[in-house]
Specification:
2 domains; globular; 5-stranded mixed β-sheet; alpha/beta; 510 residues; 22 helices
């Protein structure tokens, strides 16, 4: 094995080991698993026997135009079910929540390879650029987006689009164009906000076309490829958006949830929230872990500015660097137009073009400048590692819930009980992992809903199961007289920090 291959193999093993061990320091957030919900429902043999409750199995199913059958085309209101396919091998082999972290790490490596092919530069430049802002790697491993699959599909579409323009034969050009169109469609199916990247695709395509000659001549020569790409993007996307849910609402209606804001103060507020990921390097996974601040937190921004300035002076590819930097700014503007944008998986959209610009800049540096830049990046990562011991964890992402869910699986309660989750923090994880006979229900506020409790108690009694209630409420608010009247006295109660699992034997039907 060559020295270079050995280095990359060690890097691969280190990343996978870090992903495997990451839950010890960065506990899971339920949003890491929501986009795999369709897989959880498909693998739980009794899923369709459960009542149709908000965000449960079947709740987000869609019916294609001119059909009557509801299909699991969505995992959530604005998230498609396609992420379950690439995740399936990891889930099948490991069947533990850490599978999501390993999947994200592998997707990061895939994007490094695709970005290197796209920019035609060494992988080391991509890796260092990807680590300048730690939130970028964390967003893959702690993927609440789903960002990893979206980024890979975008890079694949850009590569295929370039090959379509460069191909000598018309048939090859059309084939690559079809691949580009399908990749963009799959991106939109993965998550509708993938559309934030479509202007970047258009600008990149125009820039590549200009390198082939006058735009008019290139358009005429590549007309079959352009038509093929547009068709394989527009037709399936149109069918998907025209699909309707069980209430007759089209999927396109979900676009209104993250609709464009026309009020300047709202856009400014979102821009300020997102810009914190540039200025505060400690914001790596704020929904999972809150790191203490440091005076070094602006270092990633300073390193990126230094790289861009030095790289622009040294590089012969200034126009490409400028293009990616401007596309980052354009995407940032599009993301800020949605009042819902605030988390790392939203910031990842403008960050991807910036990472590409940084990679081009790093490639242009002298070896001493590269070494200095890599050292600064490594120093900041070491400060993050040192701060993990003092990190705070939100209740919904508490490691206590992970210990509770592991206990439920180890005791076989997922096979014997009807699980009723009062929190998203546990529901999506429990739906995805455990015994195939698991029956899992999410019922928000179920403790305060006696009618729903009686309905679930009757279902548990019918299936010959106990009822297992999981919640992070305090005991006096969890087991109330109303709860006891609906499901009886507790058989067992287990506490893991702030989380409870309470098992009931529903009383006989009166």
């Amino acid at each position: 094995m060559s020295r270079s291959a050995a280095i990359w193999s060690l890097g691969l093993l280190a990343l996978l080991a870090a992903a495997w061990l990451s839950p010890r320091a960065v506990p899971y957030n339920m949003d890491e698993f929501v986009h795999y919900h369709a897989l959880g429902c498909a693998s739980a043999v009794h899923a369709r026997e459960l009542p149709l409750i908000r965000d449960g199995c079947g709740w987000h199913d869609l019916r294609l135009p001119f059909t009557r059958t509801l299909l699991p085309l969505r995992a959530y209101l604005y998230i498609g079910s396609i992420p379950a396919l690439p995740f399936y091998p990891f889930w099948r082999l490991i069947d533990q929540p850490v599978a999501a972290r390993l999947s994200g790490a592998c997707c990061f490596l895939l994007c490094v390879w695709l970005a290197g092919r796209l920019l035609r530069i060494g992988a080391s430049s991509i890796v260092v650029a990807s680590l300048v802002f730690p939130v970028w790697l964390f967003t893959f491993v702690v993927d609440e987006g789903p960002v990893g699959l979206s980024a890979a599909l975008l890079l694949l579409a850009l590569l295929a689009g370039r090959r379509a323009l460069l191909a000598q034969r018309t048939a090859s050009s059309v084939a690559w164009a079809v691949l580009a169109g399908l990749a963009l469609f799959l991106g939109l199916w993965t998550k509708l906000v993938f559309a934030w990247w479509l202007p970047s695709v258009a600008v990149f395509t125009l820039a590549e076309a200009r390198r082939q000659g006058p735009l008019g001549a290139v358009a005429r020569r590549r007309l079959p490829a352009l038509v093929a790409a547009a068709a394989f993007l527009a037709l399936p996307t149109g069918l998907l958006l025209a699909s309707v849910d069980r209430d007759g609402q089209p999927y396109a209606a979900a676009l209104r949830k993250g609709g464009v804001s026309t009020e300047p103060e709202n856009v400014e507020a979102v821009a300020l929230r997102l810009s914190q990921y540039l200025t505060d390097g400690s914001l790596v996974a704020p929904r999972n872990v809150e790191l203490p601040g440091s005076r070094l937190d602006p270092l990633p921004l300073l390193v990126s500015a230094l790289l861009l300035v030095l790289g622009w002076r040294r590089s012969r590819r200034r126009s490409e660097m400028t293009m990616w930097a401007l596309l980052s700014a354009l995407t940032f503007a599009l993301v800020t137009a949605s009042g819902y944008s605030r988390w790392p998986h939203h910031f990842a959209f403008p960050l991807l073009p910036l990472v590409l610009a940084l990679a081009l800049a790093f490639e242009a540096l002298t070896w001493r400048e590269r070494l200095a830049a890599a050292a600064l990046v490594a120093v900041f990562w070491s400060t993050l590692a040192a701060r993990l011991q003092a990190a705070q964890v939100p209740v919904t992402s508490s490691p206590d819930k992970d210990r509770l869910l592991a206990f439920v699986r180890e005791r076989g309660l997922d096979r014997e009980a009807l699980q009723v989750h009062a929190s998203w923090g546990t529901y999506y994880i429990a739906q995805l992992f455990g015994d195939p006979a698991r029956m899992v229900v999410y019922a928000r506020g179920v403790v305060d809903d006696p009618a729903r409790l009686r309905q679930l108690a009757a279902l548990a009694r019918e299936k010959g199961r106990t009822l297992l209630l999981l919640s992070s409420r305090r005991w006096e608010r969890l087991h109330t007289p109303a709860v006891e009247a609906a499901v009886g006295k507790p058989l067992h109660a287990w506490q893991f920090g702030s989380w409870w699992a309470v098992e009931y034997r529903p009383p006989p039907h009166e």
